[in-house]
Amino acid sequence: MEHRIVGPGPYRATRLWNETVELFRAKMPLRKHRCRFKSYEHCFTATEAVDWLHELLRCSQNFGPEVTRKQTVQLLKKFLKNHVIEDIKGKWGQEDFEDNRHLYRFPPSSPLKPYPKRPPYQKDVIKFPKWDDPPPGTSQENIPVRPLVMNPEMWYKRHSIAIGEVPTCRLVHRRQLTEANVEEIWKSMTLSYLQKILGLDSLEEVLDIKLVNSKFIIHNVYSVSKQGVVILDDKSKELPHWVLSAMKCLANWPNCSDLQQPMYSGFERDVFKTIADYYGRLKEPLLTFHLFDAFVSVLGLLQKEKMAIEAFQICCLLLPPENRRKLQLLMRMMARICLNKEMPPLCDGFGTRTLMVQTFSHCILCSKDEVDLDDLLAARLVTFLMDNYQEILKVPLALQTSIEERVAHLRRVQIKYPGADMDITLSAPSFCRQISPEEFEYQRAYGSQEPLAALLEEVITDAKLSSKEKKKKLKQFQKSYPEVYQERFPTPESEALLFPEKPKAKPQLLMWVLKNPFQPFQRTRSFRM
Predict the structure, then answer these.
(1) Minimal CA–CA distance to 379: which of 313, 322, 325, 299?
(2) Which of 280, 307, 384, 470 could join 465 in a cystine, given CB atoms 3.0 to 4.6 angstroms apart?
(3) Tens-place pLDDT, residues 228-261
């Protein structure tokens, strides 16, 4: 019997149901049975179905060895109700299946669960908010998209370093991040981290992002005690004192320092029942209804324990603080009871670990709508939580560090160069469009040639540059972009035409007016008569 592993993703509970139904119909042994002096071909007894399906579920990595026989009977009741099986007379639709010798068979076809129809979604990566994003509430749906056009002047500025000019820079002080900006950063990066771990194109099918409260995430990260338990600001949402005392009593058994009344035989069972009754009356499971699909999806990663723990850490950060606190205290109590060898049996029919799972799985995880496998999925999740609760209910340090560094970066002073991308002011973001391979190759070969050629022409025709400066810039341009330069000046003669040689002037003869000063002095004629 092989049960294919159903990984994370949307509609995992439905996929598990269909997988189990198909495997049950294909592998369940059928044989001839007699009932009331009559023979029936290709059928099975209820007990045979329970035995076979129970072994299948226990061996499956999707459910695990914690599945009980009682849970298997409950699943077969749902099979009978959904016409996966029918009794030997063709009756179905009632959950009156019992673990006995009653005969059942498969109908000609068993209906599989259809997947819910939702509007198609595009591959989406969680958007990181920028410090200069418009305030929430503003819409840019009807704003026309203006493509990014790089003119020669812009290219000249962008490539000024390549042609020998380093532009002056200036410091830009970002505007102060508001509380709403910080909360949006925490939310977007947390969801992006979860999406990356699950390996999904979008979280839309497993999580309603609009219901994620960023204040819950921040509170669960920073408002914690030394033991890592969430501290609530609203004390009215705390556990009742009598429930908390009862949980401490069982967690520290037999050293119950809070007890003021003497204990009696069976006292620990009454205390356990008190705790179970309180959690069983909760209006909503601790993991909340809207996070059901997210937690069920993470169950598909249990074969990769480290990744599953990281994903559960993120999902538990999304919980309301009061739910996270109750979950932390409950899991700690359950784990201590299971490890306590001095704890008397709390139930005659089950072991302590199985009792913990069966008692609290429904108050930890369940769906708002009826899901046929929610009991098995909840038991699987609670079992994993009990084994790894200390790691799962800790704040993921890598995520916290990453977000804090992101926020600190957005608050730093930034160096800004003229002509950089951040100088470009757009009325709306630019979007990509798909192009053909031929167009891509053309753009790759010639897309950047035209602005560079225009830049070269500007250098050539710039009358303000002296010949020496122009030659220097052309030489640097030739070194940086030889292909563009070669196309403009294919031969040395074409380059020489840019700087024609001037005719050399003949040197003029020096006319000495005075005689050689080093010639000896000659006596002049005497004026004597």
Answers:
(1) 299
(2) 470
(3) 999 999 989 999 999 999 999 999 888 775 555 5
